[in-house]
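INFO  loader      accepted 1 record
INFO  loader      residues=313
INFO  predictor   begin
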Amino acid sequence: MADIKLKDLRYLVAVADTRHFGRAAERCFVSQPTLSAQLKKLEDYLGVQLIERQPKRIALTEAGEEIVARARRMLEASEEVVTLARAHRDPLAGRLRVALIPTIGPYLLPRVMPAIRKALPRLTLLLYEHQTAPLLEKLHAGEIDLGILALPVDLDGLEARELYEEPFQVAVPAHHRLAERAAIRLEELQKEPLMLLTEGHCLRDQALALCSRAGVQEHQDFRATSLETLRQMVAAGAGVTLLPELAGKGAYGSTRGVVIRPLARPVPTRHVGALWRKTTARRPAIDAVCTVIAEHALRSARSPRDASRARTE
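INFO  predictor   done
INFO  writer      dumping tokens
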């Protein structure tokens, strides 16, 4: 085992991810001949073929697939060793890789980033945007340290913290019959063309669950890839949609031709939370970031404690 180098495992994982020697070499910052030669040496040392080399196609052998899965865990563990050492030197410094789902990131980050920079000046956040499924995959693989998304999800080796509870609102065209209402009941949308996000967005599933209970049907002719597309379609008079509260605040709440109204009580909400690996060495930094997010998101969305108090009053 002493002859297996982490560098060679990184080359193998890069080939598995890219299915291309040239792109894998670029990703690893080496020449293609160097990468190919090192992988051949790895195969010779292990005594088994890992990669099927064809003129226009690269595939892993069965042994290669199994070894890549273990190599990923080894690389993650090696990164944890380095991270752990850095964290002991200064737990609130260095880089923290944070991914947010698309229906949270653009609306939450402008509200919390100034506070995070002020509270944690030695911490650098590397920010990414992924839908829920790939976000979880990257979190498990060690490619990110912290995920911000809608709960609940299957934890499976992860830990979670709820950050805030965010009400849903209704966006209608400015001249719509419901635009003058102080609050709108979900049942009042039964005859309206309801537009939602495309498959893969957890917000779509949450909206469908809410609407099905109220007998509201989705408009089948249109599905958007972003909340901003939905907002523009509402402005064009194509239908109505549901938005999380933060997506209707600030500059996002002043789209010409769109009126955003709260839903009548009991107001449906989504729970926004943070996820991280149980084995992470960045727990102090994660806790600090989560605390700042919760404190500043509360200025426009309810905390779990506030929501619980409101239900009992």
